Task: inverse folding
C-alpha cells in the first residue's frame, strides 16, 4: 500500500519530537520532511535536536536534513503536514499549506474554535471530520488537535454526557512540565514549588471540550450547552496532566458502580471498526485503588493514548460526581492524537468518504 | 511576669519540632517538658531528634531530657500541654491530662468535631474559646487546632461569609509533603509524580471549616450551613498547602475588586486588641500577580501565619468566585495556630475571663 | 526444554518486584514461589505488593499466593532461589536453602567478600562461577550479586585493567533513591537536597570491585591489587547511579580515543557465546556528548543492563583518566545481574560444566 | 559616616537580586543605581524583576528606575560598581568603568586569572587586595569575586595548606540549579535527573583556588603549586554547592581529630579585626553527623557566608584526606563575597591603606 508522505513542522520541540517518534516507522505514513528554526536548518535532525525522549531516535530519521518552514513551502512532494508551531507562526504557515492544497493536522491553538474546522478527539467526535467537506475556501484541508487538558477532559466527559447528561463542570488541573515544552519552565521556578497559573490555558479548557462534545448545526459545530469552570496549575511532574473534576449530572446516577459502568461500557464511535493503529483498545482505564491515577505510574496505558480515571465519588443526591482523570499530555494530549487524526483521515480518504 | 510552664508531647515529629522552635524563647511560655517514643526517652532532645527545620535548635532546649508520655503524666509542675500525637494515642493521653487538670492545646484529630470542644482558628472564631466554660466533666480544659487545610480554607472563607454569604464550596488541594510528617511520603512515591489522595483528609476539610465558621447553639457549636466538596492531593512541595477554591456566593459581588476589598478590609475579631505575639499583622495577603501564590515564594508571610490569596476571578453573574489560597501547613496549619491558641487562652485567663 | 522452577524471596520490595518482572515470562525459568513478610503472607501477590514499576504485572504472577520464607523452606519443588532480603535475614534463610540443596542467587550483602563464594558480574568474571566446584560444605550452591555501585564500576574498570592496568581509583557516586528500596528515603529528606552518605556503601564499593576483578588463588579469589577511595551520596533521582571516576593508569594512554577504543573493543569473556537472554549486546555504551551520561536519559540501554560512559578526559601525562559512568541500579545493579547469573548457571549446568 | 554610593549592574538576575538584597540597608553602602537589559530599562525595579528570593524586596529599592549599562556609564555620582554580567558584556562595561575611575567589584569571570587583579576570598587572601596598588594603567580599581565552587573549595583548603601542605586535590561537585541563574536549567532537563557537565566550570575550579591560595611574586600572584582535578555536575537542588574532596597532604595528619582542629582553629587573616559586617564569625562549620553537610539544611550558616564540612576521613597512611564541603553558591559563592570584598576595600580605603 502506498504511504502518505508527511512532514513535521517544528520537529525539534517536544511535541515535534514525539511526532517524529510516532511517525518514524508508521505503516500508513512516510516521514519525509522536518522543519526547524533558521538556526537549525541545514543540519541533520540528529545534530540539531536535543532529543529528550526515551524512545530511540531511528537511524534514518536522524539523518534527515532540517528545512525552515519557508523552504518546505517550496516543496510539493508531500501530502500531510503535522504542525507543532507557536500559534502565531502556525497561522501564517498553515494558511500557505492550505493554499498549496496540503492536508494539515495542526497541534497549534489558532482557529481551534472555528466552527467549520474540526477539533478532533477521534473516539469522541470522529464524525466532526465531515466538516472537511465544507472547507471550500482553500484547496487543502485542516484538522485541529485539541489542547492537551481538553483532550483528556473531553474523553472523560463523553460517556457521562451520553448516559446522564452534564449540567456543569468544575475542574482544577495539575499539569506536567512538558506541557510548556522543552524549556518552558525553568527549574528554579518549580523545584519545591507549583505555579497556579498557565497562560491562556483556562480559556481553552473552558471552551474546547464543549466544541469537541458539540453537535452539527447550521453554522458548523454547535458547542455542548454546559459551563466549565477551570483552574489550571503547573506541578513538578514530567509527563501526565492530572485533573480533579466535579460534574453536576443532569440525571442522577444510582451509584459509583453505575458511573464505572458508564466509563467502561461506553461504545465509542465507529472508529473502532477502522482499526487505526494508534487507537487504544481501551480509551478509558478505570482505577479502583484509592490513590490512583498517578502520573508516573499511570501515564503509560495504551502507549499513552488511554486516559485513566479514579477516585470516583458520588454525593448523596446522586447528581454531584467527582473524579480524577489523568492522561499523557504529549501523546493523548498532542502528538498521539494528531497521528490518530491523520490515520482517521487517511482511512476515510482511501474509502472515498472524504 | 510569670510564664506558663508548658510541655510538648510528640516533640521529635515535624509538628513537634515546630512547637519546640516556636516555644523555645516565648515571652509567655517556658518549655519544660518534651516527650517522645519509648525508643528516644531518656536521651537528650538534641540527640534523639532528626532536626529538619532551618530554625536553629536552641542550646538549652537541646539539652532537655525526653520523657515518655507516661512519665510526663506523673509530673504535676506544668500548666499547658501541646500535643502532636497520632490521634489514637492522643485520645488516651489527652483524657489523662484533662483528669489531671491540665490545659491541653491539641493538634490531633480526635474530638475535633465535638460541639463542646472549641476548634480554634483564632482570627476567625476566637469567641468559640468560651466553650471552655461548659467543659465541666473533667478538671482540665481542651482546645483543638484545626486540620491544616481547614485552617487555611476557613481563614479565607470568613470575610466572604460575612460580606456575601456562602452557599457552596468546591475545593481541590495540592498539599505539601510535610503534611504527612517527617517520613510519611517516601521519595520513590512522589518524585516526578503526585498522589491524588490523602487518607481521611477530605472528610476533615468538608467538616472542620463549617464548625470553625459555625455559631453558638443550644448544643454547642452549630456548623455553618453550606456544603464543601473537597478533593485532596499530595504534590512534591516541602511546605505550603495550595487550595484551588470555587465559592458560590449567596449575594452577588460586583467585581473582583470588591472581593479583594472584602479580604483586605475584613475586621478580624477582637484578638487584634490582645496583641498576641504569634498573631500576624495581616492574616490575609492578597497577591495581584497572575501566577501567585506559590508555595516556595509565599509561605513565608507573617512568619508563616498569614495566608496568601491570588487568582481571584468572578464569573459574569457575580456569584461564582474562584481563587487560590496558600498557607504554611506546619505553622498556620498546625504548630503556629496551636501557639496562638495558647496565647489567647493565657491572655484571657490572666484577665479572668476563662 | 524443561524450565528451572524458581522462587523469589522478598518479592514485594523494589528489587523483588524487578526480579518478578524479569522472571514472569522467562524462557529458562518458571516463577513458582514468592515470599514476603508475615503481614503479606497468604495474600495474592497482586493484593500485597505496592507495584511501582512501569513494567506491567503479569496476570498469573499477580495471582500467586505469598508465602513466608519459613513456609517456603518446607517446600521442595523448586530449583533456584533468588533472594532480595535484608542481609541479616538472608544469612539465616540462605543457610537453610543451602542445606536443602538449593541453588541460591543472592542479592543480599552477607558473605559477598567470602573468597569461595563467587561475586559475579558475568561479563567481567563469569569464570569465577567455577568456585562453585569447591562449595562442598553444604548441599546447595550460592552465588552473589554485587552491590549496585560496584557492579557498574567494575564493568567500567575491566577494559581499563586489561589494556592499561589500574593503579588507583577515586570515585564519588550520585546514587538513585531506588537504591534504598521502596521507602528508604523519605521525601522530606531529599527534595531540594542531597545526602552525602549511604550507610555501609563505601566499604562495599572499596572492596567488591577488587574481588570481582580479582583472580583465582590458593585461597579462593585474590582481589585485584589496587586501592579504591569512594565517597557515596544520595541524590533526588529515581533510577540510575552516576559515578564520577578518576583512575590512575599503570601504563599511559595516548589519547582519549585510545580509551574509547578500550571501552568499545574490549572482548568480554566467553559468556557472549552462550547467548544468555539477559546479556546486553553492548555492555558499555560510550557517549560522546559533553553532557552525558544522564540517569533519566541513559539508564535504558540494553534494557537497563548496559552501562554508559562519558566525559572521558585524560590528563597531559596520559596516566590520569577521568570519566563518568552510569548504570541502572535495579537492573544492572541488582535484579538484572541476578537473572543473568542464573542464566549463566543454568546454561553451564545443562552443559554439565557445573 | 558617609556611605559609598553603589551601583549593581545586572540587577534583575539571580546574583543581581542577592546583591540588591544585601545592599538594601547596608551601613557602609547606599544603593543608588541598578541596571538591566534594554527591555527592562525605564521600568521600576519592582516591575521588571522576577523576584525569587525569600528576602523581602525593600520598598524604596523596588522604586528605583532601571538604567541600561550605557546610561549608567554617563553618570558620575557613584563610587562602587558591583557587576553581575555575562563575562563578554562585563569585559566591555568594566573597562569603561575603570576608565571612569570607578571601583569595580566584579562577579564576572573575565580577567579572574590576571595575576595583577586580585581574586578575593577575603578570609583566605585579603592581603591580595594590595595588588590594587599596582593597578595603574587605568584610573579605577578592580577586584574579582571567585567562581562559586572555587570560593567554597579554597576556603576549605586554606587551613589544610597551612597546617599540612597540599600535594594534590581531586574534587567532584554537585552544584545547585541557581548556579546557572534564574532560567539556566530548564526543569525538563533536571527533574529525576542530573547533568554531569557544566560548561567552563572545571577549568575555573582547577585554576582559581590555586590563585586564591597563591602568593605574591614578581609577576603578581604566583599560584599555589598543587594540581586540582575537577569534575563538576548539576543536581536538582536550589541553592548550595556540595563538593566531594580528596586531598593528598604533604605532611601526614595523625587523626581526623587533628584535621577537625585544623579547620576549627585556623586563625583567619586579620580581616577579623576589621569587623566587616558580612564576615561570618565562623567561616568553617565542622559537622560531626555522618550524613552532613546537606544543602537544604546547612546552606544557612553565617547567613550563607559560612561553609560547612563533614564526612572527614583520613586513610591509614595519614596522607589521604577526604571530606565533603558545602556552601551557598549565591552568597559565599557570589554576592555575599562580593559585598565582603567591597567592605574590605571600603575599610582599608578609609584607613588610607589603599
Result:
Amino acid at each position: 500500500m502506498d504511504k502518505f508522505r508527511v512532514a513535521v513542522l517544528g520537529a525539534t520541540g517536544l511535541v515535534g519530537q514525539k511526532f517524529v517518534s510516532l511517525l518514524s516507522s508508521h505503516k500508513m505514513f512516510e516521514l519525509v520532511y522536518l522543519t526547524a528554526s533558521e538556526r537549525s536548518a541545514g543540519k541533520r535532525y540528529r545534530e540539531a535536536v536535543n532529543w529528550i525522549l526515551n524512545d530511540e531516535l531511528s537511524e534514518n530519521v536522524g539523518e534527515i536534513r532540517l528545512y525552515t518552514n519557508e523552504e518546505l513551502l517550496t516543496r510539493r512532494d508531500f501530502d500531510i503536514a503535522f504542525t507543532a508551531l507557536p500559534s502565531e507562526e502556525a497561522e501564517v504557515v498553515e494558511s500557505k499549506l492550505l493554499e498549496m492544497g496540503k492536508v494539515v493536522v495542526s497541534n497549534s491553538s489558532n482557529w481551534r474554535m472555528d466552527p467549520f474546522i474540526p477539533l478532533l478527539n477521534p473516539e469522541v467526535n470522529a464524525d466532526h471530520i465531515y466538516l472537511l467537506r465544507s472547507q471550500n475556501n482553500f484547496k487543502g484541508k485542516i484538522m485541529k488537535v485539541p489542547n492537551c487538558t481538553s483532550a483528556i477532559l473531553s474523553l472523560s466527559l463523553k460517556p457521562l454526557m451520553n448516559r446522564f447528561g452534564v449540567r456543569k463542570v468544575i475542574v482544577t488541573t495539575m499539569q506536567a512540565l512538558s506541557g510548556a515544552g522543552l524549556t518552558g519552565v525553568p527549574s528554579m521556578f518549580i523545584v519545591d514549588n507549583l505555579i497556579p497559573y498557565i497562560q491562556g490555558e483556562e480559556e481553552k479548557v473552558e471552551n474546547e471540550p464543549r466544541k469537541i462534545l458539540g453537535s452539527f448545526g447550521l453554522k458548523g459545530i454547535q458547542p455542548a450547552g454546559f459551563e466549565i469552570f477551570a483552574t489550571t496549575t503547573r506541578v513538578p511532574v514530567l509527563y501526565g496532566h492530572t485533573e480533579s473534576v466535579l460534574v453536576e449530572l443532569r440525571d442522577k446516577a444510582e451509584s459509583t458502580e453505575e458511573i464505572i459502568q458508564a466509563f467502561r461500557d461506553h461504545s465509542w464511535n465507529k472508529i473502532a471498526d477502522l482499526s487505526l493503529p494508534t487507537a487504544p483498545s481501551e480509551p478509558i482505564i478505570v482505577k479502583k485503588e484509592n490513590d490512583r491515577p498517578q502520573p508516573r505510574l499511570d501515564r503509560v496505558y495504551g502507549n499513552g493514548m488511554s486516559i485513566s480515571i479514579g477516585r470516583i465519588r458520588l454525593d448523596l443526591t446522586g447528581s454531584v460526581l467527582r473524579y480524577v482523570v489523568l492522561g499523557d499530555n504529549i501523546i493523548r494530549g498532542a502528538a498521539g492524537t494528531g497521528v490518530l487524526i491523520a490515520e482517521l483521515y487517511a482511512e476515510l480518504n482511501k474509502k472515498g468518504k472524504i
User: Anything to note?
Assistant: Chain A has two domains: 4-147+335-350, 148-328. The longest helix of chain A spans residues 331-350. Residues 240 and 297 of chain A are 10 Å apart (CA to CA).
